[in-house]
Design a protein that fits this description.
It is a single chain. The protein is mostly beta strands. It has one helix and seven strands, in the order βββββαββ. A hairpin with a 2-residue loop joins strand 2 and strand 3. The longest helix is centred in the middle third of the chain and has 8 residues.
Length: 94
Amino acid sequence: MLTGHVRFAYERAAFLRLVELRPGDEVAVGRADGSTAVFTVYGVERLPTESALARASAHTEHPDLRLLTATGYAGPGARSTEAILVSARLTAAR
């Protein structure tokens, strides 16, 4: 599971375009050994934050990747109540 922000300190952050992912899209993850793991998206969900956290950390039978971010800006000291969860399955290694 990777978590990240859409915006941080009013600037664009790593997951700014996460909501644009669709089933069939590929996500490439660079590994420490220089190889790349390629995952194919099979799900994009908008869920209550607590449900998203539980689903993102749930056991899977396959090598899966979960990308998770909170949605919107709730204001100073406030917490977002909704999250975007992208689920992807390992489909290649280069």
